[in-house]
Amino acid sequence: MLASYFKLKKDKDKNKYKAQDIYKRILSLSGNFTNFENYFIKKDFNTSFEVFSIFIIFYIKNLKELKLENYQNINQILIDLLIEDLDYSLREQGIGDMSIGKYVKKYVKKFYYRLSIIDKNLDNSNFDELSLFLKNLDFINNDHLDEVLKKIYSKYNEIKLELKNEFI
Q1: Phi-psi region for residue 113, left (φ > 0), alpha (ψ -120 to 50) or beta?
Q2: Domain boundaries, the chain
């Protein structure tokens, strides 16, 4: 009975470390992607959130598709890390304790909406509808829209290959 508890705790810790590693990669990837000049209308918290959301959704989607061991736990930890990071980032922007919950809730709702739309369109390989959705988010400079979308799609495939090589 005690041995199963320690094994369970060890598995949770292992998943947490995997998720934290993936989260750091997503932060780096989205940071590098956001720093391209003239790709985005403005570089602010909302743009960073949109780019980060797309990439974290790509990781969540690929972990699910590849049916990696404990992918559900890893995905849940990734979302938990996102929520913690949102709370911290919004506090850094000066949002007070009384209204922080409202702002976090707003961004979490945005994230889950994007997750449902992107997940559905990736399942159907409906890249035209996904492109239209991303265009309507109105954070990508229209002059570079096609170029940015091509890079986003290539990142999706790179993420899939990266996870395949790492976990399978």
Answers
A1: alpha
A2: 11-167
Question: What average pLDDT does this structure show over 106-129?
Answer: 89
Reading the block at residue 160, the tokens are 């899939």
Any residues with CB less than 8 A from the CB of 90 and at least 6 apart, and which?
100, 103, 104, 107
Q: How many residues are present in the chain?
A: 168
CA 74 to the chain's CA centroid: 13
Tell me the pTM: 0.88
Tens digits of residue pLDDT in 131-166: 888 888 888 888 888 888 888 889 999 999 999 888
Report the greatest alpha carbon distance in the chain.
62
pLDDT higher than threshold 70 for residue 105: yes
- Could you tell me if residue 38 is left (phi over 0), alpha (psi between -120 and 50 degrees) or otherwise beta? left
Place of tokens 């709702």: 109
Integer Cα distance of 64 and 75 in angstroms: 8
Q: Let me know: does 139 contact 121? Beta carbons within 8 Å.
A: no
